[in-house]
Design goal:
The longest helix has 4 residues, at about 20. Strand 5 (about 95) and strand 6 form a beta hairpin. The radius of gyration is 21 Å and the shape is globular. It has a single domain (about 35-295), classed as Beta Barrel (Porin), CATH 2.40.160. The chain is an all-beta fold. The strands form 2 sheets. Strands 1-2-3-4-6-9-10-11-12-13-14-15-16-17 form a 14-stranded antiparallel barrel. It has 1 helix and 17 strands. Helix content is about 0%, strand content about 55%.
Length: about 325
C-alpha cells in the first residue's frame, strides 16, 4: 500500500510546565535561574508508543532586560524506530509598555535532527517462510535528516492575564524548502489565560487562585485546542483540561480529558498529569502519563517590584 501520513510535533499536556518548548518568550520568565525536566509517555498500550522528554535551563539578566535559555528535546516514536532531537538557544527581551502591561518578544535557534533506525525494521525478503535469513535488498533512503531551524514569539501580559503566539519551524517559510518533506511544516500556536485571586494570605504571601487558560496549535492540516482550568490552594494545585477540536479537522475527533495534580513551593514544582483518551480509542491506548519537575534558584534578582512576573501557572 502507498499512502501519506501527517502528524504534529509532540505536545505536552502540561505546556506551561515546559515553557521554553511552548515559546521562546518564556526564557527568563521566572526572573531567576530555572531548571525544568519533562517526561511524557503517550499511549503505552499501543505497540510502538511515543516517549518524549526535554530538559531546559534559563536565566533572567536584569541589566539587559533579557532572558536567555537552552533546551534539549527528544521524541521517540514507534518504540524508538523514529527519533527526533532538538538542541536550541532561546532569547527574550522585556519591554514595559506602562506600569501594568509588558511585551516580551522572543527568538530561538536550534539544531533539528530526525533519524530512522533501520535495524529495528524487517522486510519481506529477510524471511524464508517464518525463518529470518538476514539482510534486505531494499534500497533504503537517507537514514538521518539534520538542519538548523528557528522560532519567533511574542507575549503580552499584566498582573492577571497573558496572551501570546509562536511561529515555529520558520525554515518552512522559504519557497525553496516549502516543498521539501525533510523539513517539518510550520507550527503556529496561540495561548493565553487569566488569573482570579480567591484569597490572599498576607502573612505567608501566598494566595488561593483559579487559572483559566487555553492553547491552540495548527501544523499542516491538523488543529488542536487545549482548554481548561487550574485551582491553586498552596502548596497543592489541581487541574482539568479538554483537548481536541471535534470540528474543522480533516479527521474530526475529540482527543482526551486531562487530569492534573501538582505540588508547588517557592523553589520547586512537581506535577503529574494523566490524559484519559476519549472517543473510539478510550479502551485501547492506556492514556498518557506526564511528569514535570521545575527548580528555581531564587534570590539572584531583586527586580520583582519593578517587573511583574507572567501570571500563568507553572503546571
Amino acid at each position: 500500500m502507498f499512502f501519506q501520513s501527517k502528524g504534529q510535533d509532540a505536545h505536552f499536556s502540561q505546556f506551561y510546565a515546559n515553557p521554553l518548548y511552548l515559546s521562546p518568550s518564556f526564557a527568563g520568565s521566572s526572573e531567576n535561574t530555572r531548571f525544568v525536566l519533562n517526561y511524557r509517555d503517550q499511549w503505552p498500550n499501543v505497540p510502538g508508543n511515543f516517549i518524549t522528554y526535554s530538559f531546559s535551563a534559563d536565566h533572567y539578566f536584569k541589566s539587559l532586560k533579557s532572558g536567555m535559555g537552552l533546551i534539549f528535546y527528544s521524541d521517540k516514536a514507534g518504540g524508538g524506530k523514529l527519533t527526533t532531537i532538538n538542541v536550541g538557544y532561546l532569547y527574550s527581551y522585556k519591554i514595559p509598555i506602562n506600569d501594568k502591561f509588558y511585551l516580551q518578544p522572543g527568538l530561538s535557534a536550534y539544531y533539528y535532527s530526525r533519524k530512522i533506525d533501520y535495524t529495528m525494521l524487517n522486510f519481506s525478503d529477510q524471511f524464508f517462510g517464518s525463518e529470518f535469513i538476514g539482510s534486505t535488498s531494499e534500497v533504503l533512503p537517507q537514514q538521518k535528516v539534520q538542519h538548523a531551524d528557528f522560532a519567533f514569539s511574542c507575549l503580552g501580559y499584566s498582573a492577571n492575564y497573558w496572551f501570546g503566539l509562536t511561529f515555529d519551524h520558520l525554515m518552512k517559510v522559504s519557497p525553496v524548502l516549502n516543498t521539501d518533506s525533510r523539513y517539518s511544516a510550520m507550527r503556529f500556536s496561540i495561548y493565553g489565560g487569566t488569573k482570579f485571586t480567591i484569597k490572599k494570605r498576607y502573612r505567608s504571601k501566598k494566595s488561593d487562585a483559579i487559572y483559566a487558560a487555553f492553547n491552540f496549535r495548527q501544523q499542516a492540516d491538523i488543529r488542536q485546542l487545549d482548554l481548561g482550568m487550574y485551582y491553586l490552594k498552596s502548596p497543592i494545585m489541581f487541574g482539568i483540561w479538554y483537548r481536541g477540536i471535534p470540528a474543522g479537522n480533516q479527521y474530526a475527533s475529540s482527543d482526551a480529558l486531562i487530569y492534573l495534580l501538582g505540588f508547588k513551593t517557592k523553589n520547586i514544582t512537581i506535577s503529574y498529569s494523566y490524559d484519559m483518551t476519549i472517543g473510539q480509542l478510550i479502551s485501547k491506548t492506556g492514556g498518557s502519563h506526564e511528569i514535570a519537575i521545575s527548580y528555581s534558584i531564587s534570590g539572584l534578582n531583586t527586580s520583582r517590584r519593578r517587573y511583574h512576573q507572567i501570571p500563568c501557572p507553572e503546571l
